[in-house]
Design brief:
The protein is of the alpha/beta class. Helix content is 28%, strand content 21%. Bound molecules: 6-phosphogluconic acid.
């Protein structure tokens, strides 16, 4: 990232998460794509594979579309890359709300990644079954070497992409929901009362085992939630994105200017 593209509000030197403000969504996507490519290269060079969990919603679409361009897709070894999801809605893969469908349209269908390297959450199953099956998928991928294993025996992703909602949720860890308190399971069904639906989500232990966490946050509508998460009192049950603090990894927040509006500029 050149200085012209982004303002660094805080760096890893002071143990705070790195916060980088980009001028707009396009610059945010480009910064994220550049970092994605670097992490992928480091992972494949160092360990022979790159395991990344994609986020859903709308913000990452620009990133996925950019990664599908020749400028970026030519810099990722997709044959040694394995795609996973941080969460999924309880819908079939062709449903408009499906996180898999969005990533497939924006990225997967446009790159030459082997089908066996794409590990979607089969959220068309009953939530309990979908979660249990995805845990088995993660375990199988550890055993096959597609994902690294942490010292504690958990899947250690090279990168997990995350966003936040206006209520400060991340993945499908919503305020005051049971998944926030999960300490053993890797993947759980999580009932979201406000949405009157189940979601399938990676749990805090897995998120915090990741080598790299990259939050992508864009839009003025996220400014309040972002301020609460980064500058507010520590209340993960109310501001779930606060629960993401990698125990042995890096976290970076890539924001566009409107989303960063309430954050003070630090020296
Ligand atoms: C999902 C995501 C969710 C998302 C936030 C932000 O399934 O919706 O995993 O955590 O990152 O809701 O969504 P937007 O990018 O659409 O604002």
């Amino acid at each position: 990232m050149t200085e012209a593209e982004g303002i660094v509000l805080s760096g890893t030197k002071d143990r705070k998460p790195e916060i980088v403000v980009l001028p707009d969504r396009a610059a945010l996507a480009r910064e994220a794509a550049s970092r994605f490519v670097v992490i992928a290269h480091q992972a494949i060079t160092g360990h022979g594979r790159f395991a990344v969990a994609l986020s859903g919603g709308s913000t990452p679409r620009d990133l996925y579309q950019l990664l599908a361009t020749i400028e970026f897709s030519s810099r990722v070894d997709w044959h040694h890359t394995h795609l996973f999801w941080g969460d999924e809605r309880s819908v079939p893969p062709d449903h408009p709300d499906s996180n898999f469908r969005m990533a497939n349209e924006a990225l997967i269908s446009r790159i030459g990644i082997p089908a066996g390297n794409v590990h979607r959450i089969r959220a068309e199953l009953e939530p309990v079954d979908a979660a249990r099956e995805y845990e088995q998928t993660l375990l199988s991928c550890i055993q096959s070497g597609a994902i690294a294993e942490s010292d504690a025996g958990l899947p250690r992703f090279a990168l997990i992409l995350l966003g936040i909602g206006e209520d400060a949720h991340t993945a499908s860890l919503f305020p005051h929901t049971t998944a926030l308190r999960e300490t053993a399971r890797w993947v759980v069904p999580n009932y979201i009362e406000n949405l009157k639906t189940y979601r399938i989500t990676l749990t805090p232990p897995v998120l915090n085992t990741s080598a790299n966490i990259m939050f992508l946050v864009a839009g003025a509508d996220k400014a309040s939630a972002l301020y609460s998460v980064l500058r507010g009192e520590r209340r993960p049950d109310k501001y779930p994105a606060q629960i993401v603090q990698p125990t042995n990894g890096n976290a970076v927040w890539l924001l566009d200017k409107p989303a960063s509006a309430k954050l003070e500029t630090e020296s």
